[in-house]
Structures are given as C-alpha cells and as structure tokens.
Request: fold
Amino acid sequence: MRHPLQILEQYWNFTSFKPLQEDIINSVLNGDDTFALLPTGGGKSLCFQIPALINDGICIVVSPLIALMKDQVAVLKERNIKAIALTSTYKYDELSTLLDNCIYGNYKFLYLSPERLQQDIIQDRIRQMNVNLIAVDEAHCISQWGNDFRPAYKNITLLRELQPSVNCIALTASAKPEVVSDIVKELDFIDAKIFKQSFYRENLAYMVFDTEDKFYKIQQILKKNPSSSIIYVRNRKNTLEISNALNNIGFTSTYYHGGLSTKEKEAHFSNWLNNRTQVMLATNAFGMGIDKPDVKTVIHIDLPDSLESYFQEAGRAGRNGDKAFALILKNKNDEEKVKNQFLSVLPDVDFIKLVYRKLCSYFQISYGEGAYTTYNFSFNTFCKTYEFNSVLAYNAILALDRSSVLSLTQHFKRRSTVQILVSNSELFQYLEKNQDISIIIKSILRTYGGIFDQDVKINTLLVADKANVSEDLVIKTLQRLEKENIIALNLKKTDAEITFIEPREDDKTINRIANTIEVQNKQKVNQIKDIINYITDNSTCKSQQLLNYFGETDVDACGICSVCIDKTKKVDLDSQTNAIEVVISLLQENDLSSRELMEQSSLKEEELTNAIKLLLEREAITLTNHNTYKLI
Reply:
C-alpha cells in the first residue's frame, strides 16, 4: 500500500498535510466510519480522495450540489484521475453505459446526488461495483436540524445496504453539536471516529459596523486595505451596479452570480484570482472551490440567512495566515429587511399543498400518474395564471424539490436576453418615429441597467405588466427590433424544467412531508434570530459568539474583533468635546449629512458618530427629511 503522502505529492504537488487531514485519511484507510468537521479551506475533499486512490475500486461520493460535483470531477480529470458525475443532464437511457464504465472502466470516483439513489438502475449497478469507500459531502444536509436539510439525503443509507462491508466518511464545514450526533445516527455509523478542527481563526477579525452609507464605508475599507476582497450582496442586480460604481471611482472590480454563463464566470473569476481586479462582487453562488489564500477582506452588506453560511463565506478571508477582516455592514433597516426577505415568504403546509395541486393542473397530470415525467416550465406564466406571489411560490417549489416530490432544474442560460446595439440618442430618435412601441422600450430601460453594454436577462412578463400590454406584444416588439438591428435578442419562453418524481396524490403527497416542512420553517426562524443576535450583541467577543454557536465554549476573547477593540478603547473626554464643537460649528453654516460632516472635518468616523449621538440625545440637533442634520 502506498503512503498517503506519496499520493499527495504525485497528484497535488503538496509535501505536507493540513491539520487533521492525515489522521482522517488513516482512519478511513483503517476501515473506520469517519466524521470530518473541518472549516472552510480545511481540505475536506482530500480526506476521501486520497484513501480512494490508495485502495482498489471506486469511491461513491454523494453531494447535493451539481456545480460542486462538476467542479471536483473537472479537477480530478485535470490530474488524470478517472471520475464521473451522474448529474440531471444525463437521461435515463444514458445511465446504463455510464454505470458500466464505473464497473469495468477503472473509474475511481462516481459522484451522484441523493435523489439518484432512488432509481432501480443505480441501485442494481452499485451492487456490482467494487466500491472502496462511501463519501457523504455536505453531510449536514442529512440532519433535519442542519442548514439546508434535504430529506433525500436519508436515501444514503441505501448505499450501506447495497455495500454493507464498505466504510463511510461524512464531511461538512459547519455543524452544531446536535447536528453532528444526528449525522452519525442517520448514517448508521459503527464506532464512529469523529475529527473536529477548532473553528478558531487567530488572524481573522470579525467586525460589525453600523453605517447609514454602506457604499462610502466600503470605499474606506478598500482604501485602507488595498488587497483582494469579496463583497457579498443579496441579489444579482446589486453585483453589477456596485461593481460598476466601484470601477467608476477608481477601484478594479468584477462580479459573479448564478445567472452568468460559464464563460463569463470563468473570465470574471480568473481576473480576480490573478489579482487583475481587486474586488469580487458576488451573491452566495460564489463560494464552491474557491481557494484564494490572499483575500484580505470579506464584506457582507446584506445580512446572511444563517450563521452557518456566514461563517463559511467569512472564512474565505486570510487563508494565508495574514491578518484579515470579515465585516458585516448594517443599519437600522436591516433587521426588518432580513425578516421580510426570509420569514415573511416562508410557505406553510397549506400553501405548498395549493401550489402542488396547481402544478399538477397546470401540466394536466391525472391522479395517480405523472411519476418521472418532465415538462418545460415558465415560472412567471405559472404565477400569473394562478395569481401567486412569485417569491412565495418559488419557495414552495423549492420545498417540494428539497423533499423529492419533484425536481426543479433552472436553466438560467436559457432565459431571454436583450442588448441594445444603438446609442442612447439613436434609440430615442427611433422611438420618436415609432411611438407605438415607446412604452415597451421605456419599461425595459427603467427596469434593467447595463442593457447598452451587455446582454441582460429580461422577464418579458414583468415588462408586459409595467407597460400594461400583453406579453405577446412585448415579444413581437422585441422580434421587430431585432429585425431592424436595434437590439440583439435571444428569446426563450421557458426558464426551467420540472420533473415529477412521485405520482400525483394531492394532499397525501404533501402530508408525508408536512412535519419536515414545519421543522424547516421553525429552523429558518431560529437562524434569522441567531443572525440578529450576532449583529446586535456588542458585549461578547464576535469570535466567541461564532465559536459558541458551533459548540466551542472554552475559548478566550480574540482581542481583534469589533467588540474587543471597543472594550480596549478609553473615552477621551477632551477629544469628545472637540468633536461636538466641530459638528456644531459646521452645522451653524449649513444642514449637512453625516458623509458631508465627515468630508468637511478631520474627525474619525467613530468620533463623528459619537458626537452626533450625543447631540441627538441632548436634542441639540435633529435629522431632517433629507437625511441631513440641523441645529435646533
């Protein structure tokens, strides 16, 4: 048997392991059921890949994320390691050949989703394979108390029945103690060997700042730390807008979200990875496979939906061991905003039943039928037909997807895109001569930014609503503009596919998953409470707060987070008095915003903020409707 270090050097060109990696690998090679809890960047994948390469046979890797499976398979193939991922892009009649390759073709890794395990052909072929290891990635998904619980993950126990003599390794980057226990129980571990690496990061300063002008605060942070940065935002539109705004004032910035094409993602990522751009604006789609050691700052300008996701995203800073910063920028509106964004749109069981029945009616599926039938799905048309709130309906369909009632495949690349090919002045000259379509074009311009510069994905139903015309008229207008070379158009009428996994049984279908839905809704409420507690607790070290959440209680204060720094600062009364005098002096001349006060004074932001608070408490100044301060 070759030594793990030899495999590491041969395929990855590393000469030493990260903490706990070798211990975990030896546990797996010893045939033990093994649990690995390693933080982001801890090198989880090597913990199952190296044992699988040492032993004869194939390793079955279960993962819920298609993009992650594809990424890992691509990396393995680059190293001349034979691997395959059975993603949803493969149809049923293609599976037989692919599975034969796994049996007879010397493949070392078979990646599949937990949903695939329900198929008889998969189970039958796995029985015939020489399996050397079962690896469960993102193992927290098997626990109903875990982040992003997926009931289909409980199918993984089938693998243990199909290959009863094969040991299993479960891996995750974030799990509370009760989740760890649940994973070990659900995967039927025998004498489990559990390895946990402390989540403490001595070089990473967790910061939470109150600021009414987040963009201005971002500028200050990036100027002070002119190194590689990630800024996480909640929606795709903001990635482009903020990236453009930063470029316009002298920073180098790019953006990343799930709606970009593969080519665009690769180009944007390459520019940032190779430090051609300093800043990456991203949604939470940006995360898998990122291993950039010199990220100096990770900034969240919207509150994350859980401490689990925040900890993973924040942990992408400072992997080279240098001092780094993970910052949340918040203001007085954020608590209500995060509740509205995540809690007010949680679908209850009755609403999910309604959406399920309407989906079956929409596709004319008869009672008792429909299993493994696939349909093109226009989500916007569906919502319009039944007058559903789009966010609530989308979350209901996601709940059905997670519960394996159906499978939703979103084809972002297939959505309609438009780019205006003429200049702004030429466009309006054209509209003067074609008044009949003016309202449609103006509705598009007012809804979508950047449409003169690049292809922009548009929602034709939304444009129709804003212009108060039919969707058919919007489509005919776009086709007319394309013919006249005013726009470049890629028109698609469907944006997704739905595959029904179970036969239609209406309420009976949903009743089977009702308890799971209720538990998950309660879990989401608790996760939002935990995030709000984290950003509002200004007395406990931020690092301690996070570590306590993940079960590490015997830890000292970090000394470098925003709470620890505030505690070490002594109030300088002379400085405070001076700041108050400066503010009053400036406001005697004009009403000014906090940003204008900052620019016209030599005060530090904290000195200015404290002075404003004291003057407001003393009712010496007031805030106007224009968000400026004035003397009373």
User: Anything to note?
Assistant: The two ends are 82 Å apart (CA to CA). The mean pLDDT is 89.
